[in-house]
Amino acid sequence: MQLRWILDVIDITIVAVFLYYLILWLRGTQAANLLRGLIFLASLYIAAKLLGLQTLNWFFEKFSAAILVVLIIVFQPELRRTLERLGRGGFLRRMGFAPPASSWFIRFLVRSIEWLAENKVGAIIVLEGNTGLNEFIESGTRLDALISYEMIISIFGNKSPLHDGAIILQGDRIIAAGCLLPLSESKLLDKSLGTRHRAAVGLSEMTDALIIIVSETTGTISMAENGHLTRLVTREMLEEKFFSMYREQNPKIEFHFPWSRKKK
């Protein structure tokens, strides 16, 4: 009896965790709007059952299979991307079952940002949080490459066809480059800010991503998070922020969940 109770708790916990990450993933995709429509149809079906609306019940019973096929077709791009990420291990990294990025990743990233600032090379670097960024990843060119100093410098070089967009990082990998981000419509932002800064703030208003911006005009480093823009960011501030997002990697695989991370 006691064993059955423990298994029930484990069962419910696994389902809850799965649904939690599924919702986080959908928040960053166009499938979120489709999911709302699906919830509406399900609510309508339940209401028809409870109220005894025979015509609606007949409609759902006759066309339920067709509706299911249509939903699979509509969600096909999102399902395909999810299966691809599962095969590469990306989905497991998002769920926290993979080792976190190590200090070398942060050193390369900080070094790259410093070089971009010193040489006044404009750049937007997006570090994905818990909210999925699939919609914005698809707007750029997929790379799925291990991050390196040379890779970042070459992407944002003036002769690179990808230098105008943003790069999106998932852990220690550059998932895509040349990505388009939504512009912020906030009237509180400084009117002198350019498109890069407004795009970074716009994405931070919609997601929990951390966005680093390097100004092409002044070479200053800025950071956008939760709809707020911090300017004149220093190396120390970057390192502190990055280390708060990525823990030191250990040889032993550990389980890291978002709610278990210590806040500094």
Description:
Helix 6 (103-118) packs parallel to helix 8 and helix 6 packs antiparallel against helix 10 (235-245). The chain has ten helices and seven strands. The protein has 264 residues and is α+β, with helices and mostly antiparallel strands. The protein has a seven-stranded mixed β-sheet, sandwiched between helices. It folds into two domains: 2-95, no CATH class; 103-249, YojJ-like (1, CATH 3.40.1700. It has helices at 2-27, 31-51, 54-74, 76-88, 90-95, 103-118, 134-137, 149-155, 195-206, 235-245, and strands spanning 123-127, 141-146, 166-170, 173-179, 210-214, 221-225, 228-230.
SSE string, helix = H, strand = E? Answer: HHHHHHEHEHEEHEEEH
Report helical residue fraction. Answer: 40-55%
- CATH architecture call of the largest domain: 3-Layer(aba) Sandwich
Instruction: Please give the count of helices.
Output: 10
**What characterizes the major β-sheet?**
7 strands, mixed
Principal-axes shape call: elongated
